[in-house]
Specification:
With 304 residues, the protein is α/β, with parallel strands linked by helices. 45% of the residues lie in helices and 19% in strands. The N and C termini lie far apart (70 Å).
């Protein structure tokens, strides 16, 4: 294989990504602690190998071409994962610099962040993303995330999951819409608000409490539970929401939990990680234990 046929080295690809992300050759040099000529030579070598221009040089920096966007999308996540593994996590005793954590928007915002306040000084930097459980677990399996809070129990091989919190589901509405009596006959005619047209939380509540599948057409469909809660507060209709999201409003009387069932439907949330990473990286294992304990303490403090 001639030198022209050899694949680019990781250093060359890292240099390309640094230019792509900083927007300048100077910024990339500072980020990588190398000279600007080194950056220039790496990018030029990569452009020769690919036979295409990656950046349009101009007075304010380097503008990525469509080929650069394509290359960054193809190798960016993988290089980041390699660098995290080699630089931060090669030995079990290496201190964690960053934990890449994913979770549902509502639980992460309303419960996880407040729970971590007392222990934030004991944790490394957190880089958090929001998504649905299936996408978060896929990112965990691919190595793009270190820890995931999942609303479903992961069943994939190579994943360890710990129960971290329980969420109850409450049927709530604004006081002005509350029927005078509880029971299915007094609920079925009220407008239903949901975050998905398949009524996932509402359906589970209906089958558990009322013993039947809900024959309901949602009046309003919104993209997340925060929006559903806002609509309920403003008397658009009724909905089933996690107790942690509406406990304060029910206590204050701005929302009414008109079912008041002693055994509401319950869902367990899990903190998940790749088993190999937990076994090898003591820092990640310690951080996971700290997060689990903090969330359980927080949940215990707000549970009536």
């Amino acid at each position: 294989m001639s030198s022209a046929d050899k694949l680019p080295t990781l250093d060359v690809l890292r240099t390309f990504l640094a230019v792509y992300r900083t927007g300048t050759f100077t910024g990339a040099a500072k980020l990588l602690s190398v000279t600007q000529p080194t950056v220039t030579n790496h990018v030029a070598a990569l452009e020769r190998h690919l036979g295409r221009e990656l950046f349009a040089r101009n007075a304010v920096g380097a503008t990525p071409t469509p080929h650069a966007h394509e290359l960054a999308a193809a190798c960016g996540d993988q290089l980041d994962h390699i660098d995290r593994y080699l630089l931060d996590q090669t030995t079990s005793s290496a201190a964690l610099k960053t934990i890449h954590l994913g979770g549902p928007t509502e639980f992460t915002t309303s419960c996880l962040i407040p729970a971590l306040v007392p222990v934030k000084a004991q944790l490394p930097r957190l880089d958090v993303v929001f998504d649905v459980a299936t996408e978060l677990i896929a990112a965990l399996m691919a190595g793009r995330l270190d820890l995931v809070i999942s609303t479903i129990r992961p069943r994939e091989d190579g994943i360890t999951a710990w129960p971290i919190a329980d969420e109850e589901f409450w049927l709530v509405c604004a006081p002005g819409l509350a029927p005078s009596q509880s029971g299915l006959d007094h609920v079925r005619d009220l407008p239903i608000i949901t975050y998905h047209r398949s009524l996932p939380i509402v359906r589970r509540y209906w089958t558990t409490i009322f013993g039947e599948q809900p024959d309901l057409q949602p009046q309003l469909i919104l993209p997340n539970l925060f929006a559903v809660k806002s609509a309920v507060l403003h008397e658009f209709g009724v909905s089933v929401l996690p107790s942690y999201l509406v406990h304060a409003e029910v206590t204050a009387g701005t929302l009414v939990r008109f079912d008041d069932n002693d055994m509401p439907p319950l869902n367990t949330l899990y903190l998940a990680a790749q088993t190999a990473n937990v076994n090898r990286r003591t820092g990640l294992r310690a951080a996971a234990a700290l997060i689990i304990d903090a969330v359980k303490r927080h949940q215990g403090a707000i549970t009536p």
